[in-house]
Amino acid sequence: MNILELTGMKSTKYGGVESYFAELVKICRVDKFIFVYESMPISENYVNDINKWGG
């Protein structure tokens, strides 16, 4: 299933929301997650983790 999450925010750090999203992507490997932010997330680690786990 494709899951689109429109956050309506900027991602300025690898904080609580980002950790939650990363964990969702990691646990729900069958689904395809797409997270939409107002701009590209600042944390390269967050972006890499999401891409690594299939988000």
Q: What does this protein structure show overall?
A:
With 55 residues, the chain is an alpha+beta fold. The protein has one domain (2-52). The chain has helices at 16-27, 44-52; strands at 2-6, 32-36. The chain has a two-stranded parallel sheet. The protein is globular. This is Glycosyltransferase family 1 protein.
- State the low-pLDDT regions, or none: none
Mean pLDDT: 95
Number of helical stretches of at least 4 residues? 2
Ends apart, CA distance between termini: 12 Å
Give the assembly state of these chains: single chain
The run of helices and strands is EHEH
Let me know the number of strands: 2
Feature tags:
about 55 residues, alpha+beta, two-stranded parallel ribbon, 2 helices, about 40% helix
List the helices and strands and how they pair.
Elements: E1 2-6, H1 16-27, E2 32-36, H2 44-52
Parallel strand pairs: 1-2
Short structural description:
With 55 residues, this protein is α+β, with helices and mostly antiparallel strands.
